[in-house]
Design goal:
mainly alpha
Length: 140
């Protein structure tokens, strides 16, 4: 959600809420809370998109590296003109080990993306609770 979209949504929300006059309730404060909610959602979406892009980039790097290594292995075997060398098993084992490390990196990237997005929303929920407590306090 970009800032233009969030501003448009907020303007519509403000127009609707502004029509009501509620005694003892700070409408401006309620409106500001909604603005912060919309901004938090936009930030969480941006964080999630960045995480997905990072994940896709990492997957592309892994695929590119794996294909390059495979092409190199096939080329070496083809140049020798003989059966695959005795260390082919070792090369395959190394490739599998690297694949496992790469998969762990992908999982870590996905976890960070989810965690960062969740942190934005969690922070806003905590702020919202505090704002509501303040709004619901009897005015002196």
């Amino acid at each position: 959600m970009d800032s233009t979209n969030s501003n448009r949504i907020f303007a519509e929300y403000k127009k609707v809420i502004g029509q009501f006059k509620l005694p003892g309730i700070d409408v401006a404060a309620i409106l500001e809370t909604r603005r912060k909610d919309i901004e938090a959602i936009a930030e969480a979406n941006t964080t999630a998109i960045a995480g997905v892009q990072s994940l896709a980039q990492k997957q592309s790097e892994i695929l590119r590296t794996t294909l390059t290594e495979l092409q190199s292995l096939v080329s070496r075997v083809g140049q020798s003109g003989a059966q695959p060398a005795a260390n082919t098993g070792e090369v395959v084992q190394q490739a599998l080990q690297k694949a496992l490390v790469d998969m762990q990196e992908l999982a870590d990237t996905a976890y960070r993306a989810q965690s960062d997005s969740f942190a934005v929303v969690t922070k806003r929920v905590a702020e919202h609770v505090e704002e509501l407590k303040t709004l619901l306090q009897p005015k002196k």
